[in-house]
């Protein structure tokens, strides 16, 4: 089957670069991109073209870190630092997902909102509940989203009687979950030790062994907050740095994503680069919980892989347009903190992180490269007044800073049209 989308095509083939093809054609065969063309060749004479007129056609978003069961507390309870916030807000909210019916309702709404925002790839935390995790995976799959979801492992320092599992339960339920989700096509499992303080050494060792045996990716949190890092040092006096608590158990390689990394110093960043770990920058959350301002620009310059995450509900925006603008602003705050010595992220660089850099974790090439699965957003952005005709790149910049309600016209995910504006 041939898909031909026509419009102003903007893609991010390299960090900081935007390729623009005005009134061009984005073509896919059986959901796989063959290329972007300024004119339609003879071979497609008579083929049906979805003509989006003057709309922008851009890559869809990859949100590489978010907590699905924190969706009900979006925009609430951000008056505490991380560890207190977890106990006061996050854990009690996640505890509700012991109820499958509640999970179904919330996760259906979340999947719908992700689609309408143009997020088609995710790397997502569920809660510790196996059944709710399977419901989440099912709802995402049905909505047309692709990516990874993890049943959270947390066998210590949870909320007693509210949100906890024993080591034995955690292991057994992880195996049950992995068995039960095998048949999903687009949503795959990712091992998810919540963070080092939540997992006993025995559980970490079990997960590391499982990752190797079953060739599974891993997601967790790293160096987000000072008190968290002190705690990790007490728990693992044998480890010089936080990342070594993951490395020690086989949870540190090129299929690992680590959220935040606000306080990762040169040595920790070098360890990320050496192992090929992907850092997920969560600018909204880092600011909301006063965690800090991650040195993202420096990480990029050092060759560390960085993508973006909404981190709802530490983050208060699910929409990656907003998250991208937050990342750009955070990098400017970092520049000011660094005595204006570091450059900031440009919008084009932020856009690359929100799209191509995230897609890379799923094995894709940057931009609308031939061979990539078709993941795209069609964007109409003509409701704001313009003082002159804007270039497609200027329109994209404005869409990032000033997301307009209802601008997303259509969304394509893994070759399927999964959203059309009602
Ligand atoms: N560290 C461990 N759990 C969490 C969480 O739910 N949110 C954030 N932001 N950090 C965490
Ligand atoms: Fe998080």
UniProtKB/TrEMBL annotation:
Recorded superkingdom: Bacteria
UniProt KW keywords: Hydrolase, Metal-binding, Zinc
GO function term, MF aspect, one: zinc ion binding
Name of this chain's protein: Amidohydrolase family protein
Cofactor: Zn(2+)
Listed Pfam families: Amidohydro_1 (PF01979)
Organism: Dysosmobacter segnis
BP terms from Gene Ontology: guanine metabolic process
Record-annotated Amidohydrolase-related domain positions: 60-416
Database matches in InterPro entries: Amidohydro-rel, Metal-dep_hydrolase_composite, Metal_Hydrolase, Metallo-dep_hydrolases
Gene Ontology cellular-component annotations: cytosol
Keyword field contains Cytoplasm: no
